[in-house]
């Protein structure tokens, strides 16, 4: 919407144009449409204030909300596998950093750990019910 509006109408609202190029008629409100009785009547008909509340910040909420059914996400891990993932991620040197490079590395390692946890050739359940990698790697 912003992109096409910028193409059709030029840049509005981000930075004021230079003083010598400023044309108030082309910047901001379209006063012809604002004064158009057909448009104003349509707006007033379709945007009635709520009868119960006169607060302008709450006056136009819908009377009936749509019901959206959201299914519970299907996590492929057991609780033990989730604990193993969390334990492994927290031991990484870039755990807890907020910069994007650390987050990218964290996601890459998380994907690698998830693939290993789900691969029975790499991961096995040991006697303590803790997942561990074969070949001496921690899971």
Could you characterize the architecture of this molecule?
It is a single chain. Helices cover 38% and strands 4% of the residues. The chain is elongated, with a radius of gyration of 29 Å. It folds into 2 domains: 1-70, no CATH class; 79-133, no CATH class. It has 5 helices and 2 strands, in the order αααααββ. The longest helix has 19 residues, at 100-118. Strand 1 and strand 2 (131-133) form a beta hairpin. The chain has helices spanning 2-9, 31-34, 37-46, 79-90, 100-118, and strands at residues 123-125, 131-133. 5% of the residues are buried. With 139 residues, it is mainly alpha-helical. The chain has a two-stranded antiparallel sheet with strand order 1-2.
Class from secondary-structure proportions: mainly alpha
Ranges with pLDDT <50 over ≥5 residues?
A: 126-130, 134-139
Largest beta-sheet details: 2 strands, antiparallel
Compute the number of helices: 5
Q: Please tell me the total number of domains.
A: 2
Mean pLDDT across every amino acid position: 75
Strand content: under 5%
Q: What does the radius of gyration come to?
A: 29 Å
Strand order in the largest sheet: 1-2
Helix and strand run: HHHHHEE
How does the overall form come out from the CA principal axes? elongated
């Amino acid at each position: 919407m912003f992109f096409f509006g910028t193409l059709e109408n030029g840049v509005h609202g981000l930075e004021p144009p230079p003083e010598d190029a400023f044309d108030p008629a082309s910047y901001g409100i379209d006063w012809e449409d604002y004064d158009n009785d057909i448009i104003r009547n349509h707006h007033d008909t379709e945007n009635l204030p709520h009868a119960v509340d006169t607060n302008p910040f709450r006056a136009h909420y819908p009377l009936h909300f749509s019901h959206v059914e959201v299914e519970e996400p299907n996590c492929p891990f057991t609780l033990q596998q989730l604990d193993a993932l969390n334990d492994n991620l927290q031991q990484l040197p870039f755990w807890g950093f907020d910069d994007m490079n650390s987050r990218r590395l964290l996601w890459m390692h998380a994907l690698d750990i998830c693939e290993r946890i789900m691969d029975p050739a790499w991961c096995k359940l040991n006697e303590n019910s803790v997942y561990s990698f074969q070949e001496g790697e921690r899971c």
